[in-house]
Amino acid sequence: TPPAQFLTSQxxxxxxxxxxxxxxxxxTQAAHRQEFEQALVSIRNQLMETxxxxxxxxxxxxxxxWFIECRDATGKFPxxxxxxxxxAELFKQKSLADLENEINKDDNKESRLGEASVGSGGGxxxxxxxGGKGAKKSGGASQGREARQRRRRIWRHRDETDNFQQRFDxxxxxxxxxxxxxxxxxxxxxxxxxxxLRGLKMxxxxxxxxxxxxxxxEGEYNYLGTTLKQANxxxxxxxxxxxxxxxxxxxxxxxxxxxxxxxxxxxSLLLAGPGGVGKRMLVDAVCTETGANLxxxxxxxxxxxxxxxxxxxxxxHLVFKVGKALQPSVLFIEDCDMMFRKKAPKGEAxxxxxxxxxxxxxxxxxxxxxxxxxxxxxxxxWEAEQKPFCxxxxxxxxxxxxxxxSRHCE
Length: 410
Hints:
The protein is an alpha/beta fold. The protein has 2 domains: about 15-205, no CATH class; about 215-405, Rossmann fold (3-Layer(aba) Sandwich), CATH 3.40.50. It has 15 helices and 5 strands. Strands 2-3-4-1-5 form a 5-stranded parallel sheet, sandwiched between helices. β3 (about 330-335), α13 and β4 form a beta-alpha-beta unit. α1 (about 15-75) packs parallel to α6 (about 170-205) and α3 crosses α4. It is elongated and about 150 Å long. The termini are far apart. Pfam families: AAA. This is ATPase_AAA_core domain-containing protein. InterPro entries: ATPase_AAA_core, N-DRC_Component, P-loop_NTPase. GO terms for molecular function: ATP binding; ATP hydrolysis activity.
């Protein structure tokens, strides 16, 4: 039984002071914790406002540089990294061992597997003997080593002798929150750069339009034309005549506003001839020589797009609005006779007659100041209904097969 003096309910002055100090310490700790939690939010917001834009610009510059370097090395833009890490995987700091493992991963995979099976006693039993505990031990050791290194890096050279109140260090919070802010900014940057990369691929890596000059369409004159006419025989047009006529009807009016105002207005041109005589080549040559925008209205290109009557009206509105805004413009229709056939052949593009009514109406709105030309190509123009077909195309140009002189011209 303890002495009577120890059984008294009264506390000594030291005990009272100790209890008061503990209570004050708890209150101070609670206040400091609340202050610390508020600082986590305020410092994070401050970093986002002051450093977020700079982080975004730096990341975008680094990623754009990566775009350029990859395209210079491979000839095309790379695929953007997917997943949560995104572009962080591109600029992740790796140790020398990690780099060596990545380089030798594919080359030495089979040899490393063979050496492991032989050196460990062979088969699954050797793998059980050599692995297991050693792997777990090395993993735990590495985690402990990282924790010690982090603690040493943060606290080894930090002087806390003046921090009697044990308040938080704003710089430590900034270091941690800067990583968090950088992660959030990178998510936004990844989304923006994915869109930018898609735009670059569409603008640069897209299929290039062939650059064809009208002079590339080679062909000689028909030097026997006068002799045939004297014998009351109408000579076939030569490829040189085709080249000259296309230049006069298409290249000069589209390429020069002065010529377009002075020359008779030609709204449409039909290139008719057998396959392989260069009809599409002439269309590309007209666009190249005049710098015109090519708008493809062929049935195959419009299949499944702008369905219904409302969609067709919207298509015509967009075509002529864009054509006038970005003139000179060439409206191109391949196998245009399909539009005016009574019955479309099997195996062709679906609904080739969609533009039969709307296109002639829209062509009437082309005025003298509009440098817009409709060019159609056809291999079988006789299959179409002649009246509406010839009403749509003002000029019809026959393109014959190359003659002997054109095949051997230099």
